Amino acid sequence: MGANTIAAEDQAYLRIENLCKVYATRDGEVRALNDISFSQRRGEFLSHVGPSGCGKSTLLMIAAGLLAPSSGAVRVGGRKVDRPRTDIGIVFQNPVLLDWRTALGNVMLQAEARKLNRKEAEARAGTLLESVGLGGFEERYPHELSGGMRQRVSICRALIHNPDHLLMDEPFGALDALTRDQLVLDLQALVSERHMTVLFITHSIAEAVFLSDRVVVMTPRPGCIDRIIDIKLPRPRTLAMRETPEFAEYSRQILDLFLARGVLREH
After folding, report:
1. pTM score above 0.85
2. Which of 21, 120, 206, 225 is 20 to 30 Å from 241 at the Cα level?
3. What span, in angstroms and rounded, lies between the C-alpha atoms of 11 and 176?
């Protein structure tokens, strides 16, 4: 191991070490994750892409401290994670908004749970909603908002306490293509402006390449790391960049791994 590699490891913010997760079922044990090891630098956008059932969501829940590993360890800032983390924001595929609360009220749920200063939190919530195009929609209820708008509210709620680490599990998977593209652009802007550290789970190769500094490609279950690919595309990235040879090459590398593993088949 070279000096540069050692230095990079020493700077790791999140470190996953030899992680395994086995679920007990009526039909016997199911191994979801097998010997997963990787690290994430502070300020890095790291995506995990892989087929359904490869343990991506399980990995995120373990990284959040919401699920215990069967073996191995998760460390953040050098400390072992053995309980739910309070330094994170989480966004799931379903926005999970309360119907009887406005957009602003749903964002404020996180602030209330953490007993943040209400005046300061409301000002921050308003700024966040404005930054994702929801200025003027603060008093709208979830049923008055589109799917993309509801997910924007969910993202703002995850960021209201300025978390050190943002964890996102297929946050755009249920949205139409145009809304998804816009939210990808919105997320890129938020991450750049706030220098956020993001662990992102997705099925979309294009989404992973567009957003990430590195992409972790997972194998089918039991989920292992097939390869970690550095994405050396300039920022800010534009939708037109998806048509460039460089973008296509990164996408093809991931696609070839899926073809080699039988995740996809060409006839």
Report:
1. yes
2. 225
3. 38
